[in-house]
Amino acid sequence: MGEPENEAHPKKKTAKNHATIQPQLPTLASPDAHLRVPISMPDSLHLGQLLLTGVPGFELDSETAARLKKLQPGGYILFGRNIQSPEQLRKLIDDLRDISQIEPFITIDQEGGRVSRLRLIGEEPPNAQALRDKGDPKFIKTHGKLTGQILRLFGFNLDLCPVLDISYDDTADNSLKGRCYGRDPQEVVTNAGVFNRAMRGEGILSCAKHFPGYGPAECDPHEFLPVISKSAADMEREELLPYRALLPEIDCVMTCHSNYTAYDPDRPRWPASLSHNICTKLLRDQLGFEGLAMTDDLDMGAILNEVTFEQAIQEAVRAGNDIVMICHRIEMVELAKQHLEGVEGPILHDALMRIERAKKKLPAPYGWSMDRFKQINREIWDLRVAVLGEDLAANLSVEDGKRSPVELY
Length: 409
Prior knowledge:
The protein has 409 residues and is of the alpha/beta class. It has one domain: Glycoside hydrolase, family 3, N-terminal domain (TIM Barrel, Alpha-Beta Barrel), CATH 3.20.20. 36% of the residues lie in helices and 11% in strands. The protein contains 14 helices and twelve strands. Strands 1-2-3-6-7-9-11-12 form an eight-stranded parallel β-barrel, surrounded by four helices. The protein is globular and about 55 Å long. The two termini are 16 Å apart.
């Protein structure tokens, strides 16, 4: 998850005309809507809690609102197709919360660089690679803090980062270009840890990705299924080290759509996101993770080309994921809920309990303030200049990443 979208961005820009704004202390939105119906045993209402879905546009029309109100998904993921202006985005998120009987996850890919959805209405933060190469953790800490502040101001409560993948080749065409905090396990642990602690310090939950690590991938899972043949011992020494170090500070883990021959030798081309050996035996039993697990986008080619929709939904949850993600084929979410009815009750119960625990940590949004948005936006620009220099800062990241074949914006 997290590839850029095919938005029309100019490649060069100048700094926005920021007015000098006095710092403001954030105010919390009314907590009334934050306390929702508790999640109990699986039933028709609560099955929707296992779904994280995209939404179609800038606002909730009456038909979409009625569908989502009936479905009651566990959360929403927003993309460029949902972002038009600061005020519009906050209203959309408020509306999504208003139709939810149980407080929803409101999430986004806001990593930095080309994977920064909010750059459509504000400044683009530096990416992980630029922050890594700068070599000063204070900039990474500032990036985490500002990311947390701007997300909470809009009403987001979960960010789909940090990326814990290792960059073995900064030019590799495997969807990770510019997104990795390190070229070795310890560098990832150090830098991603600084970002994660700073962002979570602002109340935003984090999601480590892409478990168990697709730095070695030779193709892009948005289009094809990568097959990774590293031994379990090599995975332990490299890919798994950042997870072992940081899982106690992570709220959620995103499982990826790559095949790992070391963990599923008897199931060729079986994605990690659907693998019980990886999602339960490795992540939960061996690494001891008790938090939330979600799939990467099930609309990716690595899934569409390998399994049926019913298999993807049911096997993802049976494998040990608590939430399945459907970003773009929004018309399929009702069918996904029907497929969840075929999953065994004890498995659904365990997933719902983990969702409930995670939702108890969700922060209430800050009260909306356009002045506060402008202030944070200016600080993001200042950080970008400090990391890249003024000349490079004026150049937006290039939209050169592949997209899922079903992504329609």
